[in-house]
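On to my pick:
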Amino acid sequence: MEKFYYLGLDLFTLSFPFIRSFEPKLHYWRKWPGLFTGIAVMATVFLVWDAIFTANGVWGFNPRYLTGPKLFHLPIEEWLFFLVVPYSCVFIYEALRYYVRRDILGRIARPLSIVLMLVLLVVGVQYIDHIYTAITFLCTAAMLAIHLFILKSTYLGRFYLGYAVSLIPFLLVNGILTGWLLDEPIVWYNDAENLGIRLNTIPIEDSQYLLFFLLLTITFYERPLKREHGDLPPADHR
């Protein structure tokens, strides 16, 4: 049964959000065109990134916990990861947008983004010889800059709330992937290519990796919706 662990985590991650996708209040399924556009763009970027990092030993996969099939040298479970995780995280984002009427982080979203962008930029440059740290932090900083100064996105406050809540299942799922509760990690990391700082068993870079790929997905998810992102009136029904 061990060979189904990674696949099982993928299916577990997808299960609740998929079942609730057809809830009349959220109508999440109606937003699938933008969602899957975002996932397609994000997956194109991150699967190439993933394949290059795997080929260069930045991280790798334990065959003990894999079913076996690979595509372009990546386990099929890893391909599914880039479908089920953004699907589930954007579901959290959408549910919070509906049930949390006020954009509670809206006022601090811009200064928070600027501070985060600068910190990521400084650390990324300082550790330019650590491939995972440098690329993740610098790319995330660039993505934040695009939203701040080019797109001038109005939904960053709501994005940060969704991201913060998404970190809870992230710590569970990614924790197991990186060896929590298991004899060996499903996904191993070369600590010479990261800061060596772990959140339980998870490299701290993974938290920014999540921010980057989720924000990239949300960018294309939001484009066709063309909606306001301030407080929602009590009578709003979708």
Summary: The chain has one domain: 2-222. The chain has a mean pLDDT of 95. Residues 2-222 form one domain. The two ends are 43 Å apart (CA to CA).
